[in-house]
Specification:
2 domains, ATP-binding, 10 strands, binds adenosine-5'-triphosphate, about 30% helix, Rossmann fold, 7 helices, translocase, alpha/beta
């Protein structure tokens, strides 16, 4: 369980996030500028918040980003162009790229999981957008951290690839019992990935519900206001 009671201020933006997040996927919804990325940056330790942040009863607040049990995949994540796919994943285990046999097995396992075995020797410039994102996910898998933060990492991909990536995130979250937080804007994506959904407004968590809430009729008023689809079911069947 990830227990969050975090306050943060930035000019006129005052956030106060309070929520307990179980393992599984939780999607963060909210309009532009409402504070989704700020929450992920606070969790990752890239911004300094006040309050409490515990994961399975261990406080994370005073840990540096690299000490936290967290992997992140943000919009701007890039691969190292001078390293092969295999090396781009291996660097997640050891920055010096000197790996034990066990660590090499782990890299190979992650490449299998992300269906990149045949691309292991390629350089990033020879990959499609979807393949490059799979490399970034493989690197996250070898890091072996129990919390995964994804800030719209697939927004540049076409709908079919985005769906493929979401299935992969769902699958690895279930298999490895991760606590995954994903920022998204699309109700279809939320329903596809399942789990729970959080609505953020003005730096506050105003709703925290199972994804099925989007399918209820009449629609949940806060979510229907957010999606701009009043008095109807939010799911696109
Ligand atoms: N570098 C910055 N300096 C000052 N204020 C900032 C900065 N970055 C973000 N903010 C403010 O913090 C608030 C929350 O921003 P945040 O990026 O968390 O929103 P978001 O919900 O992720 O939005 P989006 O969906 O557009 O990415 C906004 O009011 C924004 O203007």
């Amino acid at each position: 369980m990830l227990n969050i009671k975090l306050q943060y201020s930035w000019d006129s933006f005052h956030a106060d996030y309070r929520v307990n997040i179980p393992s599984g996927v939780t999607t963060l919804l909210g309009g532009s500028g409402e504070g989704k990325s700020t929450l992920l940056h606070l969790l990752g330790g890239f911004l300094d918040g006040h309050g409490e942040l515990d994961f399975n009863s261990e406080s994370l607040l005073r840990l540096a980003p690299y000490e936290r049990p967290i992997s992140t995949l943000f919009q701007s994540d890039n691969l190292f162009p001078q390293l092969t796919v295999w090396q781009n994943v291996a660097i997640g285990v050891s920055p010096s790229l000197s790996l034990s046999t066990e660590q090499k097995d782990k890299v190979n396992w992650a490449l299998e999981k992300t269906q990149l075995v045949d691309k292991a020797g390629r350089f990033p410039q020879a990959l499609s957008g979807g393949q490059a994102q799979r490399v970034a996910i493989a690197r996250i898998l070898v890091r072996n951290k129990p919390i995964l933060l994804l800030d719209e990492p697939f927004s540049a991909l076409d709908p079919a690839l985005r769906e493929e990536m979401l299935y992969l995130v769902k699958e690895v979250t279930e298999e490895l019992s991760l606590t995954t937080l994903l920022v998204s804007h699309l109700p279809q994506e939320v329903s596809l990935i399942g789990g729970k959904v959080i609505l953020i407004e003005k730096g506050n968590i105003v709703a925290h519900e199972p994804v099925s809430v989007l399918d209820q009729t009449p629609a949940h008023s806060l979510f229907s206001d957010y999606f701009g689809i009043p008095n109807s079911s939010l799911m696109i069947k």
